[in-house]
Each structure stands twice: as structure tokens, then as C-alpha cells.
Amino acid sequence: MSAAPTYASHNRAATLLALGAIGLWSTLASLSVSLAHVPPFLLTGLALLAGSLIALPLSGFDLRQWRVPVPTLALGVYGLFGYHFLFFIALRFAPAVQANLVNYLWPLLIVLLAPVLLHSVRFSWLHALAAVVGFSGAVIAIAGNQSLDAGFAWGYLPALGSAFIWASYSLLTQRVPHFATAAIGSFALLSGLLSLLCHALLEPSVDLSLRDLILIAAMGLGPLGAAFFLWDAALKAGDARRIGLLSFLTPLLSTLLLLCLRHERPGLHVVAATVLIVGAAAIGLRQR
Fold it and tell me: What's the N-to-C CA distance of the chain in angstroms?
């Protein structure tokens, strides 16, 4: 008879799944640079539709695993579509670097909201402190040596909204009746269709080249596809606070990847960000 999975083994599995999602999300900025000429809602809509196809082999081509209660489907669309919708609005009305900084409050919000939305999680000052340190590292990684524009832009509000949506979606998926991870395909499919509707209403039409379509497919199969499935599996397997702290690695890895593609060396700000983020994650992973 095999031994029952232990707390430690569950968290190891969750850590590996979360790191898989984070690794894929770190490629998003590099892909976005190559697709900067594609309107964002069109890009997101096509990528989400491509990403939804991952659910087919994941479910053994059993579409019944895509079916979830209407409230669960609404939660999935709230997370995938609502997050991207507000973030794109933020980028229209606020400086991109600052909007991205506000958006990256979501890992911190996961740590702070977990005791509020999940009854099995207790508030921990150490986790909260680690989250603040991790966010400080994310600020350094994203802002780098750039000068930040002073003043308030109302676009910061939808950026904050996008952060809250992703954090609350991530936690509330643990509150609804259990669903197969393959059901993320239905979330992505409906969110992709809504994104294409936003493109038709808000953006100019463009012609896409074969290269564009290949890169969009890569985005859909990676950061806007497989990453969502890995993220859901990680949250089902482990502690949301630990996973939230690991998520601060995303802007750091994204920055490092962009530097590699540009053949640039990391500066001292990247070293400082690494120390803060890795330190915060290490503290969080040691705590129950």
C-alpha cells in the first residue's frame, strides 16, 4: 500500500507547477514586444482561443470536463477576461511602467486576501512582510533605472482593479465546487471571444502576417494558455500565500529574458531585485 501524500510533497508539487506558470508568464513581455503592432484585444482574444485548445488533450478530448456551473464559469471569465480588460484600459490612460507596477500588486494581494477569502488560511505577519519585500523587488525589477513620471493618472485605478481581479480570482477558485483543471479551457474560450468583441468595438482592424500568427499561437500555447492550467493546478495543490510570493519572480525573469534578447548585461538593480524576491520567496516557503 502506497503512503498518503504528505504536506511537504503537496507543496513541492504546487511549487513546481507554479514555477512552470511563472516561467511561461516571464516570456509574455518578449513575445509582446515582437507583436507590439497587433492591437491588444485582438492579440489577447486570438491567444486565449489558441490556449483554450490545450484543454482538449488535457481532458482526453472529453468535453464534459469543460462543463462547470454558471457561477464558476462567470468566475473564470471574471478572472481571465476581467483582468486583461482592465489592464489594457490602464495602459491606455497611465504610463506603462507605473501601470505595470500597480498591476503587480496582485501577488501581495493574494497573500493579504488569502486569510479573508479562504477560511482554512490564517493571517501571518511573516508572510505579509515577505510579500512587501517581494513587491519591493518587483518594483526594482520593473522600474530599473527608468525615471518614473510624477503625478496621478486615473489609469492607475483600472490597474489596481486588474490586480485585485487576478488575486481574488486565484483565491475564489478554491471556494467554488471542485472543477477539473481542463475546465480552464471554457474560461479561456469565452474570455477570448469577449476580447475579440472588444477588438471589433474598440480597435482598428489589421492584417496579420504568417509570422504574427505563429507568434500569437506561441503566446496562446504558453503564457496565455498552458500557464493558466498550471496556475490552477498549483493553487489546487498548495498554499496560495506561498504561490503568491513565488509570483514576484515573474517580472524579474521577464526582465532577465528581455536583457538576454537585447544582449545587455543585468545591472545592479537586477541583482538587488533578485536578492529581495528570492529572499522573500525563501522566507515564505519555510513557513506554514
Answer: 28
Residue spans per domain, the chain: 8-285
Among 38-42, 125-129, 246-250, whose mean pLDDT is lowest?
125-129
In 3D space, the residue among 149, 145, 148 whose CA is nearest the CA of residue 264 turns out to be 145
As given in the structure block, the three cell numbers for residue 43 are: 492579440
SS (H, E, C) the chain: CCCCCCHHHHHHHHHHHHHHHHHHHCCHHHHHHHCCCCCHHHHHHHHHHHHHCCHHHHCCCCHHHHCCCHHHHHHHHHHHHHHHHHHHHHHHHCCHHHHHHHHCCHHHHHHHHHHHHCCCCCCCHHHHHHHHHHHHHHHHHHHCCCCCCCCCCCCHHHHHHHHHHHHHHHHHCCCCCCCCHHHHHHHHHHHHHHHHHHHHHHCCCCCCCHHHHHHHHHHHHHHHHHHHHHHHHHHHHCCHHHHHHHCCHHHHHHHHHHHHHCCCCCCHHHHHHHHHHHHHHHHHHCCC
Nearest in space to 196 (alpha carbons), one of 21, 52, 33, 24: 52
Residue type, 44: T
Q: What count of other Cβ atoms lies within 10 Å of the Cβ of residue 264?
A: 9
pLDDT score of 146: 64
Output b/e per residue, 100-138; b: 16+ Cβ within 10 A. Answer: bbbbbbbbbbbbbbbbebbeebeebeebbebbebbbbbb
40-52 and 70-93 are packed helices; what angle lies between their axes, rounded to 10 degrees?
Answer: 150
Q: How much is the average pLDDT of 255-283?
A: 85
Instruction: Give the dihedral sign, CA 92/96/98/100.
Output: positive
Rounded (10°) angle between helices 96-103 and 125-143: 160
Residue 30: pLDDT over 60: yes
Nearest to 221, CA basis, from 36, 56, 17: 56
